[in-house]
Design goal:
The structure is a homotetramer of 204-residue chains. Chain A is mainly alpha-helical and 204 residues long. Helices cover 75% and strands 0% of the residues of chain A. The structure holds a DNA duplex (21 and 21 nucleotides).
DNA sequence: AATGAATGAGAATTCATTCAT
DNA sequence: TATGAATGAATTCTCATTCAT
């Protein structure tokens, strides 16, 4: 079995199906696609999807958890990195999200559109996990406020919402295809967004 | 009211059904409810829903358009009111949205969760209308930049996204029931959100 | 109440609806039209159709019986007219049917397409009435055979079927719009059809 | 048959469903039966009907095309067989149709009652195919007229209509169950019908 | 592991008919 | 007589999931 045991081939098949599911969910939406669309996209037989995944829901759950987990690690890493200012930390977070979209737009689209915003289904099911990210972001702000680095009169939770909501809004514009999302556009978006939130709109 | 014409009774029934649909969509989600749930909620026979509305989709379309239309009027009104500063204009917009939620949380939930964020279905169908609001908000910023009232180095579109995305994020937290949304909470949310965006996070 | 009592106005309304139903049945088919189509075509309110007719079925029943009754009278009249030869009798019958189509194609279309050929619904319900016509036609033949006017070795029932089936086939071609059905075409059709059946195809 | 490939099992199921559909259409009429009746008659699950056929319409389309295709082959074969007289050719056609009914009355009933006579639905959809048969029959006549075998003063199209209309009328009587349709009855029907049309009704 | 046939519970929509006014 | 709102049973088609091979 050399260096690639049988289970690895299986793992590859599983991956193939999950990736196909993400593309299909992004293209048609979770509620508007059929499991057979996913099998077709993956080039496997209908039943094989059910061999690897218990249900259609599970495909979306896994796609979400995988990516959101990475994001949580990045946010936590940024938050606990004492060498960084709050602005640098949030820039790091924004950059990760935006570059994730740059590399694999379908994944981020699915995560945001099909999961985090679904108040009645997946969003609620994964709410604790989603909240985790929001809390960490708020904590980046509140820690900086405690150090006197950021204004203390603003509630950290609201600041976090402004920051995260702004990123989602930018991604939404990209997802809907209304605004270019090339490498330069992405870098500019991070820069402008951070500068807006940290510097404020008011002229000095 | 004694003189209400006969057509009003019909209009009332129609209204009754549309309102019931909004409540059901908010409670279960558009994709997880049945037309019979709406009929039951309205207390009318199944077929009457189809007497007044061509399809289930149309119910959501109408709910969205009605409310978004009001919002557009308010945004346009704020934008063109020369007596107001940009901060006052955006405060007005934020207040309208937030108070709409306060009065009729289901409508705003449906508008945001079931329509504006659905990249593959309703969101795309109504995209022009949705964009209209975003453009007007950006214009409030760019007009103020032209007058030297706001910093010119920030792109107005990004500023608009930060503003609108922040409001949606706040509403999302309320919709998911994670944060109290009483009258005081709403007023505070508007104040904090506006102050954050205009003043910026940075300590002076 | 002069010469037109109130009941006459009512009778007119009834007629109006029945005629509209015939047009709609012809244009869309009994199974593919709605009662509301009939009301619209007649220019009356939905419910009025039910004031004058017990059901949608009844409309078709009446349309059929009215016309088929006329046809039966003509066939019986021809059959019992001792001054006529069998060829003249059947020419009379064919002419009546064909000219009925000429004057009111919708009625004949409805009678044939929607009633007499519906083996599972109306055709079966009215079978006795339909058969009546077929029997009379066969009798025209058998009487002539008894008189030595027509060949006796052919069963009269088959001869009748050839005659009536031929007429229906001609009407079918007209109904489907494949063949012109102007006055001259109709006269020619009767002549050719009768000559074919009486004279036979064989060269002498 | 032991070597039948796996695909045959599927083809058999498909056949099973199509045959069941034909029986149900014949017994209740296309418009008066439900897809579940077909599934029940075939002894399969509801959904399997849709696994093999796109819609209820398609079942009827296929039943019609399959049988009408056979008939077209027979008619064409008869028409181009130079060893036969026109009378022999049309006898062949009539025999095929009548014996088709003898073997599988439901199929012929469905073909005629549910398709070729439906001016507003299936009849119109398949009109070109239906016409094909009529044209070939007319051509059998006109070819014979050109050879001096049949009277030339009669239009071949009318002769064709008389012939085909007569056959349909005979089948109709059988379908409605008004006339016995045993083997002898069928043979007699063909003989009488052909003799009537070729020899004519007139006594010599 | 892999296939795709088989299952059957939905769910939207239609529309004949009834009924209150 | 006239209106059209109200009713709800009926029916097609969909599609997630299971299962035999």
């Amino acid at each position: 079995m050399a260096t690639r045991p049988a289970s690895s081939a299986a793992a590859d098949k599983r991956r193939l199906i999950l990736d196909a599911a993400i593309r299909v969910f992004a293209a048609r939406g979770f509620n508007n696609c059929r499991v057979s669309d996913i099998a077709d996209e993956a080039g496997v037989a209908y039943g094989l999807v059910y061999h690897y995944f218990k249900s259609k829901d599970r495909l979306l759950d896994e796609a979400f958890l995988e990516r959101w987990g990475l994001m949580l690690e990045v946010i936590e890493g940024a938050r606990t990195d004492e060498a960084l200012t709050a602005r640098e930390k949030l820039t790091k977070v924004a950059t990760f999200i935006v570059e994730s979209y740059g590399r694999e737009p379908e994944v981020m689209q699915v995560v945001i559109v099909e999961v985090t915003r679904q108040a009645n289904t997946f969003g609620r099911r994964h709410w604790a996990t989603i909240q985790d990210a929001h809390h960490q972001i708020a904590r980046i702000v509140s820690d900086a406020q405690a150090r006197g680095e950021l204004r203390s009169e603003l509630p950290a939770e609201v600041a976090g919402m402004v920051f995260y909501g702004a990123i989602e809004q930018v991604l939404t514009a990209w997802i809907f295809g209304l605004v270019p999302s090339g490498p330069d556009d992405r870098a500019a978006a991070v820069r402008d967004l951070v500068e807006t939130i940290f510097g404020g709109l008011d002229a000095r």
